[in-house]
Amino acid sequence: MKRLALAGLALTAATAGSAPVWAADLPQAPAPAYEAVPATQQTIDWTGIYVGGNLGWEFGNFDNRAGGTNLDTDANGVAGGLYGGYNFQVTPNIVVGAEADFTLSDLEDTKSVGGTTLTSKSDWNSNFRARVGYSFDRYLIYGAGGLALADLEVEGNGDSDSKTALGWTLGVGGEAAITNNVTAKLEYVYQDFGEEDFNLNGQGVSSDFSDQQVRVGLGYKF
Question: What is the pTM of this model?
Fold first, then answer.
């Protein structure tokens, strides 16, 4: 019995010692390879000078008073012009800049109340705005605000008077880079010029003019 027990112990020790050798001889499965995920790359830099043209529809509101008579009127029509500015891409997503534009319009309407007739006109307007935007690579959404100028004219009582009105403007828009240099945008612009006083052959007339524009633009970034 002792001999059998010693033989069993010897066999167990031999088997345990040879197990690592057998495991080493077995074929080993290769470790899986993982490719590094490349970081998202910005395909356009919004920084730079740009110029372009826009075309849209304009809605003008003239709140007029003449000798205690309310002569409010509205006018709308096609408007188009030029714009230019500069963008600076602060981070991959934040874009700031400044823009100026000049738009030709043909706003004109006439109102008659109790024998008093008044014609209101505005032939052009302009904006000088700061812009702040958020970019999604080739797409940019932005808000803009600043100063506005407009031509404002009234006619009546056999006379006419005109002024360049100063006001403020706010707007929002979206822009897309068609190529690295060509961009297209859609925007809404609001302008408020407050009240201006006019004199028509000795009769005082006040006009409070505000304006809204919806327009598309095509630009080129240098």
Answer: 0.79
- pLDDT number for residue 43: 84
CATH of 53-221, one of 3.30.700, 2.40.160, 1.10.3470, 1.20.1070: 2.40.160
Tell me the pLDDT tens digit for each residue of 128-141. Answer: 999 999 999 999 99
Spatial distance between the Cα atoms of 216 and 175, rounded to a whole number of angstroms: 10
Place of tokens 């929002």: 172
pLDDT in tens, 22-33: 344 555 656 566
